[in-house]
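Case study 2.
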Amino acid sequence: MENLRREEQQLDSSPVVGISTCDSAPLLWRVQDLRAVRSGGLVGALLGSLPRTPRQNGRLGRPLLLLPEEERLLREGAGAAALPRPAGDRGAELKRQFEEDQRSSLEEQSVLALQDRKAALLRAMTSSLTEEVQQNRLEALDKNFVFPRSALAVQLSTARAGLNYCPEARSFLKIDPPTKPLPPPCTRFQVFRDLRGRGFFLTSAGKFGGDFLVYPGDPLRFHAHFIAVCVEWDEPVRVLDLLAVARLGSNVKKTVLLCSPAANGGVRYTSLQWSGMV
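Prediction:
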């Protein structure tokens, strides 16, 4: 609990993290926000591509997607607020600008494509053709040439396209309390908060069949030691489910934790380890 109090005090004294939402998914765009949450022990998951290598998926960049439990922990400590929207409706303006840029680019590329087609036609025509025949073919190409819009090459600057959500010139965030009171802590959040209070780092464990992967330190330096599965204390669990998750934990060299919130606000942990069958 002392660790949890220290972390909450750290969140209280740290700059407010600005959260943008996309279909209710909490996203962080600003570099200072990513640094703030990582220094507070929250990991999240990077989703964006890197500007210089956009086609690879081995190393990703902003935005950072937070777990619902990570967002709630920030909001409970008054360490997060929604990013203010820019004054006025810039969406229509950006759309008009985009369409104008597309039209101008289509015209420029049509001229260049016609020039390339003429050069290819001149190279293809034999010297036996008269100059008049060659000129007639070039004029026919001028009249009938159509550059399809589907062939338009599009190159966007992220700043011009409005993808730079957090310019440095933007006004400072206003700390507004949530418009709706937070619901009572659910099972997953109680487990998340308790494990964070014990100094563990947590990420999503969907691909391992659990709720959280639990790391003893920064995930960039350590492998996960536990797979946390959140269940109610009085919730019946099938034996086959226990066997499946225990066997999975054994295969990936991790210990499975059954995490059940207690009535006093704490969490009870039960570890499962596969020892084979006789």
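The two ends are 42 Å apart (CA to CA).
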